[in-house]
Amino acid sequence: MAKKQDSTPEPAPEAAAAATTAAGENSKVWAVFGLVSALAGATVAKKALSTGWKAATGKEPPANPADPDVQMWEAVAWAAVSGTSVALARMLASRRAANYFVKSTGHLPGQLAADKPKA
To answer: Which of 28, 31, 33, 84 has a Cα-to-Cα distance from 98 of 20 to 30 A?
Structure first.
């Protein structure tokens, strides 16, 4: 008895190559887009922090918290506040960029797709 063949056509080699090229281009676009958004978020956060620090303490934030001339409380407070705030701003900016990328392309960037929960 003859075996029933699957009627689903196999993709042409050209189509597979085009999909691979498109995925590679999307990866490069995301790498640039994600980097720019994270840097912009960090820059905005640092500017806001500097302004807030000056308003709260009346002086400029420490340029180098490791400098022994900077008081310990000031160095620790600046490191904690700036580190946390900049990291949060970068994460939020990257998430916004990923949402925009999804709206533009219809899928997550390859670097983020791996974190998607599997059903």
So the answer is: 84
Distance CA 80, CA 37 (A): 23
- 7-45 pLDDT tens trace: 555 555 554 444 444 555 677 888 888 889 888 988 999
For residues 88 and 96, the answer to whether their CB atoms sit within 8 Å is: no
57: nearest Cα among 70, 44, 45: 70
What is the C-alpha separation between 95 and 101, in angstroms, rounded? 10
Find, among 49, 35, 36, 40, the residue nearest to 84 by Cα.
49
Kindly state whether residue 26 falls inside one of the protein's structural domains: no
Residue 74: which domain range? 31-108
**Global pTM value:** 0.64
Question: How many Å apart are CA 95 and CA 57, to the nearest integer?
Answer: 32
